[in-house]
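Good day; I would like, with your permission, to put a structural problem before you. What I wish to show you is a protein chain and, alongside it, a tokenised description of its three-dimensional fold. Thank you for your consideration; the sequence and its tokens are set out here:
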Amino acid sequence: MLSILYTALPLLLALPFANAGPSSKRGGDDLVLSAWYAGWHATVGFPLSNVSWDKYTNLVYSFAITTPDVTKVSLNGSDGELLPQFVSEAHEHGIQAFAAIGGWGGAQYFSTAVASAENRTTFVKTIVDFAEEYHLDGINFDWEYPNVQGIGCNTLSPNDTANFLSFLQELRQDPVGANLVLSAATAITPFAGPDGSPSTNVSGFADVLDYIQVMNYDIWGPWSTAVGPNSPLNDTCAPAADRVGSAVSAVAAWTAAGIPKSQIVLGVASYGHSFSVPPTDAFVNGSKTELVAFPAFNASNQPLGDPWDDTGSVDACGVYEGPGGDWDFWGLIWGGFLTTEGKPAEGIYYRYDECSQTPYVYNETSEVMVSYDNVQSFAVKGTYIKETGLRGFAIWEAGGDYNDMLLDSIRSTIGI
């Protein structure tokens, strides 16, 4: 299985240091063709040699994480020794190299790092030193939930969003920070204000960030009340109770709050979530000719995903978490849900939801249903990016694809 050829990469934009990499202006309106590169997968199926460098404008190495010491960020757990090679190869191929700081389990100390003027100044130096040490062209801040408790043990303040903006403004005043490409991976709603609700005005971030990457995935998952689309393009056509967010609602929310469409990169997913669904709940009227939309599932029986899925471990907060149930696109082929052409395998039931523009597969024998993305849904997202005037796409994660099928699909409909 690990011999399977996966795909994809980079994420972000940037103006590099002198003699550090490809030449480009910071903050232009160049199209972003990007992906996150998970360092921990480099030795288990997706080495740098598998990257289709010429199909990206940039790639984001993930993750450096925050620490209790504001003077340090850590690459523990992300094969930090590979980062210099990652940067070197990106530059050799003429694309920009970035690093993401934070992530679901690595954003615990962002709030502390920007909480005071003294800390912000120190953290600016930390980021600048990190960028210079590794000759990075840009930084992706993956602090997804300012003033919202994410993983469960993040430091938190009602002033997180305001402090984050102040930090970025100070970073832009630094001679090095002024030339870095800066982006932020965000939720589908704007950063939370002091009351915990999405801010109605985040226009200040448009002045200091080159763009945001809206993570339009994990919208539905094992935590939800029913099986739903992991990465819905639209949900305005869904029943009212099932409208929990989509690319369309996210772009509307962020633009209303002051981020231009030209500074929004759409985050797209090369993976999906699995659910345990008995046949009695999976089929419309038991006919086995049509899968139910939003079926109930057995939350007490989380199916294991592909070999990259977490089989169960203690998270960054010291809490044990069971299997995630994640299936990468290559994993669905490895696991017998799809053929090597990305089509439903023999004996696998399939549904394509025209509202969310996402596919589902179902194995009646194992009673596993997976909401995921395929060539068709990536093509539709590419068309949406082009027609809406968004900045581009960013894939989580580069290694989740199979033979560049998803990557080639979205590039094609964007017009590359």
Summary: The chain has ten helices and 16 strands. The first helix runs from residue 83 to 92. Confidence is low (pLDDT under 50) at residues 1-25. Residues 274-369 form one domain.
